[in-house]
Specification:
This protein is of the alpha/beta class and 322 residues long. Helix content is 35%, strand content 22%. The model is unreliable at 1-25 (pLDDT under 50).
Length: 322
């Protein structure tokens, strides 16, 4: 069912050519979960990344699993706390398998570096070159990206009916790659990418132009020119987070006929969202993307349908409690 292909992930594997199987069916076999003393199914999950102590993902999974009668133990595998880097990924993955983990979420700086250590990749991972969810089954490691469908579902739910014929996006990093992919998959007519790192923006444009057509995506030199003809704006940079306050564009560029989609969720209302609301724009905050990526990961881990509204309520309650 799987066949080997050559993947060239230069940024992830330092220009080495790596052969990985490409699965034609990415539905892993059912997982044999453990049981606790009360004979409840028990699952071990984890998040691998740096500076992840504030993550809301563990509580979302644990609380939703409990609603389905599953005892979920979700561990933070913080590279900074453990004084490790991405070179520890092979050992961490092996340890997780040996301890019976159901799966792992993957975040910065491991989303690309983990790829060579996986046995099966979803089609979207080949395009995005980024993995945020790994399912461990029967000695195989299945890699997925749930960031892009997380953004797509959040957008459809929060900005229903919004036109996407002309969209400007601020940011071309890992999050920007996911949101841009989502927008193009949703049928955006044209997407303008703005990033201070021009080479990074152009690299993202080149990659997606090959997939979706050169007429549908381009790099823009500045936000003002991109927003002049845009119907909506996606913000996909860390600016606006609690530790990175501010806005990446002047408030005067916002106008009532624009929609604004934010990916930052801590705080839920960033300076950009406040300015956009004051300008009369339709907006969505970053909670939707954060929740929906977890919803899709939950399905992959457990093979059952989670309650989206309940997971969203758990998430928002955590953020507001801070």
């Amino acid at each position: 069912m799987a066949h080997p292909i050559c993947l060239n992930y230069r940024s992830a594997v330092k220009s080495r050519r790596v052969f990985l199987p490409r699965s034609t069916s990415m539905t892993p076999p059912a997982h044999d979960v453990m049981s606790d003393s009360e004979n409840r199914p028990t699952a071990l999950l984890g998040l691998i990344g740096s500076s992840i102590q504030a993550s809301r993902t563990p509580a979302m999974h644990e609380l939703e699993a409990a609603e389905h009668g599953i005892r979920c133990i979700y561990k933070l595998i913080d590279l900074d706390r453990m004084k490790l880097d991405v070179n520890a990924l092979p050992e961490l993955l092996t340890a997780a398998e040996q301890m019976g983990f159901t799966g792992l979420n993957i975040t910065h700086p491991c989303k690309q570096a983990v790829i060579p250590h996986l046995s099966d990749l979803s089609e979207d991972v080949h395009a995005l070159r980024s993995v945020n969810t790994v399912v461990l089954r029967n000695g195989r490691r299945y890699g997925y990206n749930t960031d892009w469908p997380g953004f797509s579902q959040s957008f459809v739910r929060g900005l229903r009916g919004a036109s996407i014929q002309s969209v400007a996006q601020l940011g071309a990093g890992g999050a920007g790659a996911a949101t841009a992919y989502a927008m193009l998959k949703m049928g955006a007519g044209h997407l303008a990418i703005i990033d201070p790192d021009v080479a990074r923006a152009e690299a993202l444009v080149e990659r997606y132009a090959r997939l979706f057509g050169r007429e549908r995506i381009s790099a823009s030199p500045d936000a003002e020119s991109a927003l002049a003809s845009a119907e909506g704006v996606i913000h996909a940079t860390p600016t606006g987070m609690k530790n990175h306050p501010g806005m990446v564009l002047p408030a005067h560029l916002l106008r009532p006929d624009l929609w604004v989609a934010e990916i930052v969720y801590f705080p839920l209302e960033t300076e950009l969202l406040r300015a956009a609301k004051a300008a009369g724009c339709r907006t969505i905050d970053g909670s939707g993307m954060a929740v929906y990526q977890a919803v899709d990961a939950f399905r992959l881990f457990f093979g059952i349908e989670p309650n989206v509204d309940r997971m969203h309520d758990h998430f928002v309650a955590q953020v507001r409690s801070e």
